[in-house]
What does this fold into?
Amino acid sequence: MSDDAPAPVWLHELTWPAVESYLESEPTPTVLVPVGSTEQHGPHLPLGVDGFQARSLAEEIAVATDVLTAPPLWYGDADHHLGFPGTISLSTDTVVSVLSDIYDSLANHGFVNIITVNGHRIANLTAIRIAMDRANRTHPDASFAAIDPLRIGIDAHRRLRDGDSEDGMHGGEFETSFMLANHPELVREAEFTREVTETEPYQSDDLVSLTDSVIRPHGRRTPEDGSLGHVGDPTNASAEKGDELWAELVANAADFIDSLR
Amino acid sequence: MSDDAPAPVWLHELTWPAVESYLESEPTPTVLVPVGSTEQHGPHLPLGVDGFQARSLAEEIAVATDVLTAPPLWYGDADHHLGFPGTISLSTDTVVSVLSDIYDSLANHGFVNIITVNGHRIANLTAIRIAMDRANRTHPDASFAAIDPLRIGIDAHRRLRDGDSEDGMHGGEFETSFMLANHPELVREAEFTREVTETEPYQSDDLVSLTDSVIRPHGRRTPEDGSLGHVGDPTNASAEKGDELWAELVANAADFIDSLR
Amino acid sequence: MSDDAPAPVWLHELTWPAVESYLESEPTPTVLVPVGSTEQHGPHLPLGVDGFQARSLAEEIAVATDVLTAPPLWYGDADHHLGFPGTISLSTDTVVSVLSDIYDSLANHGFVNIITVNGHRIANLTAIRIAMDRANRTHPDASFAAIDPLRIGIDAHRRLRDGDSEDGMHGGEFETSFMLANHPELVREAEFTREVTETEPYQSDDLVSLTDSVIRPHGRRTPEDGSLGHVGDPTNASAEKGDELWAELVANAADFIDSLR
Amino acid sequence: MSDDAPAPVWLHELTWPAVESYLESEPTPTVLVPVGSTEQHGPHLPLGVDGFQARSLAEEIAVATDVLTAPPLWYGDADHHLGFPGTISLSTDTVVSVLSDIYDSLANHGFVNIITVNGHRIANLTAIRIAMDRANRTHPDASFAAIDPLRIGIDAHRRLRDGDSEDGMHGGEFETSFMLANHPELVREAEFTREVTETEPYQSDDLVSLTDSVIRPHGRRTPEDGSLGHVGDPTNASAEKGDELWAELVANAADFIDSLR
Amino acid sequence: MSDDAPAPVWLHELTWPAVESYLESEPTPTVLVPVGSTEQHGPHLPLGVDGFQARSLAEEIAVATDVLTAPPLWYGDADHHLGFPGTISLSTDTVVSVLSDIYDSLANHGFVNIITVNGHRIANLTAIRIAMDRANRTHPDASFAAIDPLRIGIDAHRRLRDGDSEDGMHGGEFETSFMLANHPELVREAEFTREVTETEPYQSDDLVSLTDSVIRPHGRRTPEDGSLGHVGDPTNASAEKGDELWAELVANAADFIDSLR
Amino acid sequence: MSDDAPAPVWLHELTWPAVESYLESEPTPTVLVPVGSTEQHGPHLPLGVDGFQARSLAEEIAVATDVLTAPPLWYGDADHHLGFPGTISLSTDTVVSVLSDIYDSLANHGFVNIITVNGHRIANLTAIRIAMDRANRTHPDASFAAIDPLRIGIDAHRRLRDGDSEDGMHGGEFETSFMLANHPELVREAEFTREVTETEPYQSDDLVSLTDSVIRPHGRRTPEDGSLGHVGDPTNASAEKGDELWAELVANAADFIDSLR
It folds into this structure.
């Protein structure tokens, strides 16, 4: 699960003749593009949670399906978290540019399936959609898709959830479970606190059960408002829940990738 | 329901002193921004369906809630329909620029709630989100939101639907019902045909019931592929269904706007 | 004169097979692109005057010459009017992007003559020129042109004018005459006031008789300066003058379009 | 008339303390910005005609009115001449960027009147207008204007003209007269040839008498079409006519600049 | 030396309150920004060499000087290597955007010294310079600098070198030594081959001894030309040389950072 | 050495048929692009020093090697000098756009070697590199290079220098020598003052002897800080030194150009 691990799936650990040989031997060469974000995740989780998720998900999917993965992008579209020390945000336009350049490079080498793995739930999707639409026009022979833990794991989130319906999003039950399962030394259990946002009519972020709602800009909070930064309840988290969720996400993604062959 | 109608809600039918007077007398001045698209909607509906929906929805909401509305934008993000004669598409970047300029103008005049009304279901949302996020940063004292028939009428679509789950989207049961109710002279009933798309695993567009899925670029079809252009079954449409759906959309939107006061 | 009228010239009222049939049967398929602006026009005229003119001119020319017209763009380059409540301005760059995208879509469908109809006298021309030059390079087989009431009606303005030489421009004798002839219910005759701008040497805006002058940026006025917003004398306006001017503009435009066949 | 001449008006021949002293001693510090183009001017004139005109006009106006001038920009918006060897064109966007950066630098130093001198008749005006509008918003305390030989010398062109009405534009009677008066060693009299463009209805470029016309993109010709590149009749040119025209242009410009004090 | 290591210097391994506490307790808060590239490095080294160098250098400097470091950027400006399978290149503009956004985020949080650590010798410097110049204008109170192994280790390269003068650049003696010292399992010693580029007059890339030369665009090679991709002689490499070079680079960088306090 | 001189090397002094004839008769048509800057050079030198150097260098090289040269660009990337009255700066992006457009025009005409001559030592190189890389991709059959007095005259600077190692850069010994040799009437000897910058560790700008250093943004000084603007010691300057340096630069450049034939 580390960049240094011997798993031969990471592009940055392979020589160019090794990549050439994969491209020539595979009928449908496939590559993953893991994208995270460096942003606050409450007082109990490190800033890199989304990058850890993207990296781990990409590596496990690549190993399970025998495909390659590009190096992780630790930076994403996180303007709404800039009020918290340490958050680093790329503008939506910058994320689009980065992904467009990556997609162009990979499609020109002959990769046929180029699949983005988004660790920054929902928030990076705007940029990913634009970059995929653009690449789709430039490279009609390549196929683009994006995997998001929340969108490919709706059933898993529903089934495993002990907390509120918003709890799939940011620093709550599920992301804390992932970190407990994979990077426990970076989790501060002493800081576990339940944070709930009061919801106005038609303004729910509940993407799991999908009720009538309007679309709004990202909310911007700061520590000055007394906000701790995360949403939901980390005390509902456990390493087991993290493992179970992850197994299902990887299985769903592998199932999808198999359907492309 | 026409641009020429005497209803005093359209900005382009008011003088500047009339707008000034509204801004000065209203505690929370509110304005709608209707956005459509000029794109193919199958052989039975005219290219302007999305603009007709945006214009009609904005006018009815404005009348119901006593707010103003900017003139309709007939053009949207429709690259995936360019294979069909007559479709006119603005790039995502262009739609973002247009909306950003409109939002800036309105916020600078002192409008406090600026609410986009999207007639081009889902497809314009990428651009709208970026423009709202940007305006939200520039104008922290204004409040932005977007109303989409599918997102604010999930329950209504579920309840009224006779066809497939994809049928809320493009030229099917619901858009045809709207046109029968409001512009019957522009509907060609003789051309009503059921069009169904076979769905690959994890690739459903079913936004109403929300199953596990990956995010993909917009599909691009053309008449050369034998495609008629729409999705779903117009024979399930009726003027009554159109009226009923519309009444619920307007009521939900009015409910939301009231919650902002 | 309404978007809802049964005239079969508006693209947004036609199905894609109807547009395909026009493109296949016409030797030189021609389409108009009406562009207006939502901006103050003094206390006696509504903000949409330029859009009403563009829409009306496009519809009448299309009917007279049997060509199609794209839906009206109600927004234009109006930064210099932003001091007045209700004005909505797109930047010059945004107008260029919108027109470029529209021209590209239409040229790719096979339209051979793409003719912009500008209701926002002179002020949109900068953006229109850039977009036409760009499209001209991308689509060498298509032909682009722009019709402006002032440039195609110089003789008519000279002959019909009772007021000053600046009076062809903004909210004065001629635009008020158009509104009296076509949308009298939106005109406030009680507010008719003569507004004259003192002109410095070499700084006349008299585009009808063309005297020696320097080019300056658009002047920016506001109600705070005591400005009413329009230029010229609405008391010289009449519905008859509006009808006569319009007939000549439509005849000249039709004459020009016939010369392209 | 050379960059090396001792006239103390050129910014690039002055030290920064000399400029500082001008800015501190002048009540309304004024600077000119000469802009030309490197483009074909027929077989009888060199590619730099527009730059020579801009440089000469700026220098003479600066000397006559005791103001400063920025160094000449030899490059302009000349895409329509790229078919001819040696033409170098900046895109409209690039010219806008160059002028915007120059205007910003000068306005920030405290110049109050910033006056562009355009040697590339009409063709650079689109870019100049956009850059002036932009600078006008950023620097409300500075005043911007542009001088074009054709627009500030309409009467002079009418009075002195022996050829056709189009002859004020490009490489004809007037530009050849300027070159005979100022750079006779660069003129090839043996190549003087009358070139006339047949004009379609409503498509005249006659900016001097201004008849009804539509606006079109710049025409693009090439030597392959048998075109020589210029418009009009150089045999009507003379050094005297060049001197007389120039004297009037400089006088008009000086008159305008005096009106700003 | 891994992202997962317990060293408390990586931003993505810290919570936001931990970063806040560093910012509040440090007189001159300092942060590193490691930038690499995913590009071919010959048949004996993996694509990620530049990212490994940037990550390792940043971590060691941060530990040595008690400062923080942002997560590694694995992607850089590598267009000239795109001919080789697996290379992923961001355009110069994209790298500028990414760095600008990162610098803005960090400067706004109150970091006073923001120091880029470039693993992609020389090639990223163009983008880094532009981004630093831009940030320098926006954040006059922050201080920006960039560390490049070649520029901060000129003496070290000269002293340790056994091969040619070009050998400091790409996949040769020095980069191979780094990889042998730090990631030996990713080095393919069986593929060690000497690659030498014939140099034309004035076209040397010898940045270590600096002879008279012109500046040229990046050369673009491909496997089709028989190129192996790297420059120099990996057989001169050793883990000891890698350790020695690295120790000196870290010492020099620490020396520089101490001078800022 | 003037733009008006009869030397037939300047594009703006040639007709298009003359350029066509050069392109058709030369096996490897070559053109120079001189780029300067309008920026403060201390109290003893005029703002145009870099433009004078670029123009003079281009003219002498063109005459020596029988190639053509584009007109001089007097403006460059000089943001760091904007604190001094009279400095005019183009942004890096603007310089890239100008050069890209010039390179495109020239390459499309068939010039095979396009060589930029930079009078603004080092500072314009960032923009020149980006523009050359871009042009190199678009025009693979053309060859691009840039000549900088400091980079092509490292030996000459070392040999002739009497002052400090920083003295090759800006307004010191060498630039003053050039001006004494070529434009003595624009030099103010009474203002000759030695200006030395104290250098922090690793922050030397000594590009001639190249010591270990970090890369920093351009320093921004102003007269308010008591700075005179230049670096180095003009009292070490002489016309003879200027002539000797210039002869060697021209000889080196001619040598390089001959190597391309």
